[in-house]
Write a structure and sequence with these properties.
The structure is a homodimer of 349-residue chains. In chain A, 40% of the residues lie in helices and 17% in strands. Chain A has 349 residues and is an alpha/beta fold. In chain A, helix 3 runs antiparallel to helix 4 and helix 5 packs across helix 6. Chain A is globular, with a radius of gyration of 20 Å. The two termini of chain A are 29 Å apart. At the A-B interface, helix 7, strand 6, helix 8, helix 9 and strand 13 of A face helix 7, strand 6, helix 8, helix 9 and strand 13 of B.
Chain lengths: 349, 349
């Protein structure tokens, strides 16, 4: 067990570690209104595709509990509206939509049962999804850790640890499993501007795991690669298309191109809930554009002239041909991805 | 004339715009002790290779004025020690050493003249070098502006404007000359972590020139290139080897690799004082490593866990084969650089 959790369900409340305040303060929000869950997702109090999925399910459960009706049909209709509202929180991570579809399906098949039973089911389902997410992360980590060797200097971008998931982590989970298997290596942590998830969160988690790391500005990764000081890059994902194109935190594509140029393997770790089998390629992934102030203001302090125009694309898309392999809970998909991803999907069914 | 200047000489004082406080505050330091000039260079109150050269010359002049001796030999010996001390301020920008060599030569050839004459000469020489630097920048800008076309979306990294020079700027000077020639284009400004020279200084200067720009995190440049939204990249330099390898602000090499990958021209603008003709290639350029706190603490605020290890390479080296051309006051050097740089050097003699 971790000494912290990104999110959990506690006596009809959602407890959620406020990641905006890390690493300075470790404060848990206690939420009873689903609209506050939406706000928490939107403002990145909770972030990371798998964690967003769990938060959406728990938010939906909170919304369901608050519905005052004994009519199952009315309940389902109003619950659907709540799910639609939660779906608006952020556009890119597909886990959000995946989770909402799952909880809606869970009650849709319970036709005729009383509202109380539907509510109970939603509360249970959300907790099951949290637990499952951790189990899936551990499986993924076990599958991926064979890629990490003693002495490796691993580059990672953004945060993909327990904080980004229901527990254990995706890309950082792979490193954790390798560490727990006795391998000794070190990590270059991209600080990951603008919101510094690397500097604030990945360092914090690696520190707790005792894995040695060094923080770097995002622009320094290329120089380290040229100096032969990076052996492997590994990142998470927010959405993966059927052909293996990967949307992930802005700057990921940069790492992928640089890794290719320097002949360094570039891996993605993500659960199957992050795959969007319905879109043929990355051009169909909606990329969230966030407020320019996240670039011009760092933790409340202006770092650019007042009103300086800034572009803040939250994600970029890495084409599949730059990716050495995609680590999932069902094994590692290798190129050609169209067929290997299909095979993973079949294995999951 | 600019409404501001990076540095000037005013009645036996050095006046220097404190760039650490920009864009929030526009404050000029008035310095009479050469050791404060060293401190200003070291702490980046003044930065940019050409500006550092001028600051070194003015610092040397301040040091000379304070020497209390009428013996020319003793004066020259103690002046040499002062220059040696100033030379320790920062290791990478060769303009620092170039400037100190120049002022030492200026008085070394005045054998037999009284100390007063030597001091006068040093004060004059420093002011001549400031004026020359601006003239050189304007020539460089005129030579380079032909590369900029209407509608261009130009990416730049770090700060290369009047602030980084004796006036007008290097890479930003090229853009300024193009703008003054009536061309209309826009600029993507890399924020340039860790010290945010792009966010703080380049935005400030482009704003004053009225050139439209958009600030981006360094990691976003690749995605914009992939989207076809970057037509040309242009940067400055801190030292250029005889074969055209270029040391510049950390992150520059990243831009160069990404530009090559996306088929985008990548130009460097630098005066001949930034060339180190004595070293055959970039592997001989000493790259300054600065305190990790510049990465973990942003403008006084901690953004990583206390004590988080960080690597802060101030510069990286871009191999000449990634560079489309090097813009100088004597014209644009094109590959193969070994011969084109030799030709420029001859033209300058």
């Amino acid at each position: 067990m971790d000494p912290y959790c990104s999110i959990c369900w506690d006596a009809d409340k959602v407890k959620l570690l406020d990641q905006r305040r890390l690493p300075g303060e470790e404060i848990y929000l206690e939420i009873t209104d689903y609209r506050e869950v939406i706000e928490a997702i939107r403002t990145l109090a909770i972030r990371g595709a798998p964690a967003i999925g769990v938060a959406a399910a728990m938010g939906a459960a909170l919304g369901a509990l608050a519905l005052e009706t004994d009519n199952p049909e009315e309940f389902l209709s109003r619950f659907h509206d709540i799910c639609q509202e939660i779906a608006q929180a952020r556009p890119t991570a597909v886990n959000l939509f995946w989770a909402l579809e799952r909880v809606e399906n869970a009650v849709r098949v319970m036709a005729g049962q009383p509202v109380k039973a539907l509510k109970d089911r939603l509360v249970t389902e959300a907790q099951v999804m949290l637990k499952e997410d951790e189990t899936i992360c551990r499986r993924m980590a076990r599958a991926g850790q064979i890629l990490i060797h003693d002495g490796h200097r691993v580059l990672t971008h953004c945060n993909t640890g327990a904080l980004a998931t229901g527990g254990y982590g995706t890309a950082l989970g792979v490193l954790r499993a390798a560490w727990e298997a006795g391998k000794r290596f070190s990590v270059w942590v991209d600080e990951t501007r603008p919101l510094l998830q690397g500097a604030r969160l990945t360092t914090w988690e690696l520190g707790k795991m005792g894995i040695p790391y060094t923080l770097i500005p995002d622009g320094a990764a290329a120089a380290l690669m040229a100096q032969g000081r990076v052996d492997l890059a590994i990142v998470g994902a927010d959405r993966i298309a059927a052909n293996g194109d990967v949307a992930n935190k802005i700057g990921t594509y940069s790492v992928a191109v640089l890794a290719r140029y320097h002949g360094i393997p570039f891996y993605v770790a993500a659960p199957l809930s992050t795959f969007d089998f319905n879109i043929p390629d990355g051009s169909h992934i909606p990329v969230e554009e966030r407020a320019g102030e996240e670039v011009t203001v760092i933790r409340g302090m202006e770092v650019a002239p007042p009103g300086a125009p800034a572009l803040n694309l939250a994600f970029d898309v890495t084409p599949h041909d730059l990716i050495s392999g995609i680590i999932t809970e069902k094994g590692i998909a290798l190129p050609p991805y169209t067929s290997s991803i299909k095979a993973l999907r079949r294995a999951a069914e």
